[in-house]
Amino acid sequence: xxxxxxxxxxxxxxxxxxxxxxxxxxxxxxxxxxxxxxxxxxxxxxxxxxxxxxxxxxxxxxxxxxxxxxxxxxxxxxxxxxxxxxxxxxxxxxxxxxxxxxxxxxxxxxxxxxxxxxxxxxxxxxxxxxxxxxxxxxxxxxxxxxxxxxxxxxxxxxxxxxxxxxxxxxxxxxxxxxxxxxxxxxxxx
Length: 189
Known about the structure:
This protein is an alpha+beta fold. Helices cover 41% and strands 32% of the residues. The protein has six helices and eight strands; from the N terminus they run αβααββαββαβαββ.
């Protein structure tokens, strides 16, 4: 009788095969732009208003993000509960989408304001659908640092972009995970 492989034998062997198979394209370096968007105060809102109200807010939020992203050629990489990770091949359409999303959420009278972080740079694309690297981490950290109704970006990332979006200096900020303080700007319409 042949014993069925268990635990790490079953999956570890397959993983080792992939790691040692040079023909398997595990990762590719690419240049992309990233944004994280988040509804500020969602946890508290859910606690006070209840799950049904929270689902209504999320449904409206997701409809806005989907609609704007599709018109700007921006990909929703993943939904993150009350937020999302967005990816653009070019930075301008993603920045324009961010400003439009924030404006629509604000103009709708949503009880939960949007905050967002944007950056651009080289990353590793894994298996064609996931991104790893400094630019991804920095966009997430900028979103976490943003105030409600604020879109933050690194000043150097937007200096040479061809867009009508206005940037307002916020100052040098220490960002967790980033060695040196960086010049941050707020983006608005």
